[in-house]
Amino acid sequence: MWRDNETYDTLNSEKHSKLAHKPEKPGLQAGFDALSEIAPKGFSAGLHIRFASPLVYVRTYEDAWTKIYDDNAFALRDPLVFWGFGVKGSTRWSEIRLPDPFNILGQARDYGLVYGAVVSHGAITSRTIVEIAREDREFTDTEVAEAVKIVKRLHVSAEPPTELTPAQVEALRLLADGDRHTAAAAKLGISESALKARLQSARVRLGARTTAQALKKAREYQLL
């Protein structure tokens, strides 16, 4: 769906990419593994799409198709994306009655994406849209229902925090402004170990491995 950028993580399956980036949360990886099991030709998942960019973006389609999709900015023209923003629920690609003037679905068939389903979940301000594909037949009702369950779990797992404590925000802001730990602690009137404890709690809250990653996520979630 969307071109890769710093706002979200992209995962290509190891089958298609040697530089696969795995999601940080175990719940997300389990969900993506479950999608792979029911979508033999791959999937595209944009979780919590805000301001036209998802917080997490994973796709496992063949590289040749994703290159064509990105090079032609098809995300801005894709009837599956339009459907996902206009409707909450699930449907098969063949059941969507929206214009496709660029023949995106027709071109996708050349790469084995012949049959598919799309699931849309969440508020319009934080929408999750997931597409699954196969080459041999339509998805059954049972498979579509299973995809809906997986998407709902992914949506919950990827839910970003809504706030940080004032102490966490103060500590992160000072580091974002370029202060080192010693200087930041002095400005806050606390010990350096206390500052590190605040940063550690912020990393846990944001699901980040490093302080730099915590700063990036806090900005993306508009918490700073």
Specify the number of helices: 9
Fraction of residues in H or I helices: 40-55%
**Average pLDDT level:** 88
First-residue to last-residue Cα separation: 28 Å
Helix and strand pattern: HEEHHEHEEHHHHH
**Percent of residues in beta strands:** 15-25%
The helix-and-strand class reads alpha+beta
Written overview of the protein:
- The protein has helices spanning 26-38, 63-71, 79-86, 104-109, 141-157, 166-176, 181-188, 192-206, 211-220, and strands at 43-50, 53-59, 89-92, 115-121, 127-134.
- With 224 residues, the protein is α+β, with helices and mostly antiparallel strands.
- The chain folds into two domains: 26-157, Beta-Lactamase (2-Layer Sandwich), CATH 3.30.450.80; 166-220, Arc Repressor Mutant, subunit A.
- A five-stranded antiparallel beta sheet has the order 2-1-5-4-3, with helices on both faces.
- A hairpin with a 5-residue loop joins β4 and β5.
- It is elongated and about 65 Å long.
- The model is unreliable at 3-22 (pLDDT under 50).
Give a quick summary of the entry:
This protein is an alpha+beta fold and 224 residues long.
